[in-house]
């Protein structure tokens, strides 16, 4: 398979970097946690109950007439190869927890991959919507539309006082987890990020790495999400997160301007050195690739680099992950072989950009 065809088949719509404030904000994601009434939560249910939940949700799928779910595909974890599940995790379409549910888990995935309905993960149902740029309200509206259709046919576990009941107490209430993924090289370079994270945590939000809880902030990419759902409305959660994110965006823009003003030549040198590494390396590890991609993306955003699309970071931060590299190679690769394949993938993608 050619690199161009592989990329065209592999990218999700959110990777197009065409959303609002996409120079800093990569994605907005909404996740709604729901459970079915009269069933034990997935953390303690039996395989028999898990099978019943899956069959009940599966029976509802043909009744969903929401346009984005037209031609959606149900992926059962037991029918997928480990590499296929790893790729879905790397694309943020399913969680690592669902990938481990090899017998009872499933995912209903829309064609444009903006909607993912995970079944038998930590909760019976987790509706996820992911859009490019800062579009929290649009993502929430889409998630609620999916939720409304499911609720017409499924009896949710709901309490008049506590709201939606979930496996984890932190999700009780709205069951809403809203998150934004940001590229923040300016705040990292000026060492403001270390001071900013505790301040964000004090506001009831949490800062994580690119793949959520427990993951590292590779390539200066951070996820910021709400921690509290009980006692707050969906709109309150969205407004609070949106306000904080906008302040961070403003600080990132100010940090970039300050670096250009005080260290413009050094910054330009750093950016073009990273571009040279990406264009010429024959071996490159994940961390180095992520950092170089971050530098190049910054160079594109501030106008130093004009002949490479901004989408490059969004695409390559996914396509250079271990699962994708092995998928492109057609089989398993040892760590060293992945580093070689990663360098090849990046060079070919940049060459494709030049050809276009």
TrEMBL record:
Catalytic reactions of this protein: L-arginyl-[protein] + ATP = N(omega)-phospho-L-arginyl-[protein] + ADP + H(+)
One Gene Ontology biological process: phosphocreatine biosynthetic process
InterPro entries: Arg_Kinase, ATP-guanido_PTrfase, ATP-guanido_PTrfase_AS, ATP-guanido_PTrfase_cat, Gln_synth/guanido_kin_cat_dom
EC code(s) of this entry: 2.7.14.1
PROSITE patterns membership: PHOSPHAGEN_KINASE (PS00112), PHOSPHAGEN_KINASE_C (PS51510)
GO CC, alphabetical: extracellular space
Short motif (RDXXRA motif of the pArg binding pocket involved in allosteric regulation): ranges: 338-343
GO molecular function, one term: protein arginine kinase activity
Activity regulation description: Appears to be allosterically activated by the binding of pArg-containing polypeptides to the pArg-binding pocket localized in the C-terminal domain of McsB.
Residues involved in ATP binding: 27-31, 92, 126, 177-181, 208-213
UniProt keywords, alphabetically: Allosteric enzyme, ATP-binding, Kinase, Nucleotide-binding, Transferase
Pfam families according to UniProt: ATP-gua_Ptrans (PF00217)
The keyword Calcium belongs to this UniProt entry's keyword annotation: no
Phosphagen kinase C-terminal domain segment(s): 24-255
Signal peptide: none
Described function: Catalyzes the specific phosphorylation of arginine residues in a large number of proteins. Is part of the bacterial stress response system. Protein arginine phosphorylation has a physiologically important role and is involved in the regulation of many critical cellular processes, such as protein homeostasis, motility, competence, and stringent and stress responses, by regulating gene expression and protein activity.
Family membership noted in the UniProt record: Belongs to the ATP:guanido phosphotransferase family.
Protein name: Protein-arginine kinase
Primary gene name: mcsB
């Amino acid at each position: 398979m050619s690199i161009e065809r592989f990329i065209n088949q592999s990218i999700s719509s959110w990777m197009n970097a065409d959303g609002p404030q996409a120079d800093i904000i990569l994605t907005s994601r909404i996740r709604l946690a729901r459970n079915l009434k009269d069933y034990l939560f997935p953390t303690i249910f039996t395989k028999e109950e898990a099978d019943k939940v899956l069959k009940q949700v599966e029976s509802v799928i043909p009744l969903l007439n929401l346009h984005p779910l037209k031609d959606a595909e149900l992926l059962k974890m037991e029918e997928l190869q480990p590499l296929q599940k790893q790729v879905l995790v790397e694309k943020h379409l399913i969680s690592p927890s669902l990938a481990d549910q090899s017998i009872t888990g499933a995912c209903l995935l829309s064609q444009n991959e903006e909607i993912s309905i995970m079944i038998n993960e930590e909760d019976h149902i987790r509706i996820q919507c992911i859009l490019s740029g800062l579009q929290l309200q649009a993502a929430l509206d889409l998630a609620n539309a999916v939720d409304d259709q499911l609720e017409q046919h499924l009896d949710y576990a709901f309490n008049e006082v506590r709201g939606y009941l979930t496996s984890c107490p932190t999700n009780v209430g709205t069951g809403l987890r809203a998150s934004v993924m940001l590229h923040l090289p300016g705040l990292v370079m000026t060492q403001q990020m270390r001071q900013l994270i505790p301040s964000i945590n004090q506001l009831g939000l949490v800062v994580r790495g690119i793949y959520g809880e427990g993951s590292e902030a590779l390539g200066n990419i951070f996820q910021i999400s709400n921690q509290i759902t009980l006692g707050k409305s969906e709109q309150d959660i969205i407004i609070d997160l949106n306000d904080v994110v906008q302040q961070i965006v403003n600080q990132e823009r100010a940090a970039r301007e300050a670096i250009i003003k005080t260290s413009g030549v050094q910054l330009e040198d750093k950016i073009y050195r990273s571009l040279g590494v990406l264009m010429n390396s024959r071996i490159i590890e994940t961390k180095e690739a992520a950092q170089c991609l971050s530098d190049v993306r910054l160079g594109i955003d501030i106008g130093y680099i004009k002949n490479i699309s901004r989408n490059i970071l969004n695409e390559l931060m996914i396509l250079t992950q271990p699962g994708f590299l092995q998928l492109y190679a057609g089989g398993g690769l040892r760590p060293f072989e992945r580093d070689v394949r990663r360098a090849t993938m990046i060079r070919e993608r940049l060459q494709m950009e030049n050809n276009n």
